Each structure stands twice: as structure tokens, then as C-alpha cells.
């Protein structure tokens, strides 16, 4: 996923990529760990423009992921897509000491800049980061997934198991009694 700087004309440069998730090292690791799976390649479309010494990349990606539900543990598929903007800056030709150089790197990371060297930008790391950010923190197969019975482990989406579970408001009732009692 390379962007050649010389190809960016005044009106910008449009690029499209289609990559297998295994091409991205962190995604590949997540697949190996069973954290997620990809059912489609990662398609990216972007536009790069020059702003003085910087390259502004705006784009979007889409793919299809397979994730385990956080409640019932069953795997489900969901489209994953997101818009993004990444700003790349030419690494300044540096006569800085290592310590100063490290500070420059830190402030670049804080402002969301990514440095590149030479005449092309490798977009892989930047796009990979966007895919990871788009993954749901708490994944649910559906908003009203009933989850598993805490007593017998049955998937309650498939029907009730007959266990005598406490009504959901019992803790609040207990709390209320406690408050009244303490007066
Ligand atoms: Zn579920
Ligand atoms: Zn049960």
C-alpha cells in the first residue's frame, strides 16, 4: 500500500487498495489469537493532497468481520467500515541529537502526525490502526442478545432453560430496604 509522493498533483491523487487482512501484522496476530476473523478483504479508497510539506490522506475502508458476542459467545458477522484522515509529514533532515529527535517523535505522535522518509509513504500501518480503532469495544450479536443463563449456561436466545433466576430488580430492592433500615 504505497503512495508515491511525485504522483500527487495539485488536484490530489485518488487511490484504491484491496488487501487481505493477513497482510497487516497486528490484524494477522488478532486472527491467530481468535479475537476476530475477516470474511472479506479490506477495501480502502483514499485521496491524498499536499499541504505544504505535509500529505493529508482522507479516505474510508470497509470489510466484513466475524466476532464473538460478548454476551452469548456465539460468533456473528458484521460489516466494519470507517472514514479516516491521516496526516503524514516529511521527516525533517535532522542534525538533532538522539534525545531531541525522540522529543520530535513524541510531539508528532501526539498531534497525530506520522513521519515518512524518502519519496513514498507506506500506508499499511496507518490503515491498520484505523481498522483496529473501528472494531467494537463491546461486541454484541444483537442489541437485545439475552446472553447465557448464569446457572446452567444455556443460550437464552434459544429459549428459557427453566432455572429459577432472580428478577433483575432484586438488588435494587435489597438496597432500598438497607437504606430504610439504616435510618
Ligand atoms: Zn449474543
Ligand atoms: Zn439456566
What is the strand and helix layout of this fold?
Elements: E1 2-4, E2 13-19, H1 25-32, E3 37-38, E4 42-51, E5 54-68, E6 75-90, H2 98-110, E7 113-116, E8 120-122, H3 124-134, H4 170-181
The hetero compounds bound to this protein are:
zinc ion
Order of helices and strands: EEHEEEEHEEHH
E-strand count: 8
Biggest beta sheet attributes: 6 strands, mixed
Would you give an account of this structure?
The structure is a single chain. With 183 residues, this protein is α+β, with helices and mostly antiparallel strands. The chain is built from 4 helices and 8 strands. Strands 2, 3, 4, 5, 6 and 7 form a 6-stranded mixed β-sheet that branches. The N and C termini lie far apart (68 Å). One zinc ion binds next to loops.
Summarize the structure.
The chain has helices at 25-32, 98-110, 124-134, 170-181; strands at 2-4, 13-19, 37-38, 42-51, 54-68, 75-90, 113-116, 120-122.
Describe the structure using short key phrases.
183 residues; alpha+beta; six-stranded mixed β-sheet; two-stranded antiparallel ribbon; 8 strands; binds zinc ion
Amino acid at each position: 500500500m504505497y503512495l508515491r509522493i511525485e504522483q500527487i498533483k495539485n488536484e490530489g491523487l485518488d487511490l484504491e487498495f484491496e488487501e487481505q487482512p493477513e497482510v497487516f501484522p497486528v490484524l494477522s496476530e488478532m486472527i491467530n489469537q481468535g479475537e476476530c476473523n475477516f470474511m472479506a478483504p479490506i477495501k480502502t479508497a483514499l485521496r491524498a493532497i499536499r499541504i505544504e510539506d505535509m500529505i493529508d490522506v482522507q479516505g474510508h475502508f470497509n470489510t466484513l468481520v466475524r466476532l464473538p458476542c460478548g454476551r452469548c459467545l456465539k460468533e456473528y458477522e458484521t460489516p466494519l467500515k470507517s472514514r479516516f484522515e491521516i496526516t503524514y509529514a516529511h521527516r525533517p533532515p535532522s542534525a538533532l541529537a538522539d534525545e531531541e529527535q525522540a522529543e520530535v517523535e513524541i510531539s508528532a505522535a501526539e498531534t497525530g502526525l506520522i513521519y515518512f522518509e524518502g519519496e513514498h509513504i507506506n500506508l499499511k500501518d496507518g490503515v491498520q490502526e484505523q481498522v483496529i480503532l473501528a472494531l467494537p469495544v463491546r461486541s454484541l450479536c444483537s442489541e437485545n442478545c439475552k446472553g447465557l443463563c448464569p446457572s446452567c449456561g444455556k443460550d437464552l436466545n434459544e429459549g428459557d432453560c427453566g432455572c429459577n433466576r432472580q428478577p433483575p430488580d432484586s438488588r435494587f430492592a435489597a438496597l432500598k430496604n438497607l437504606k430504610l433500615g439504616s435510618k
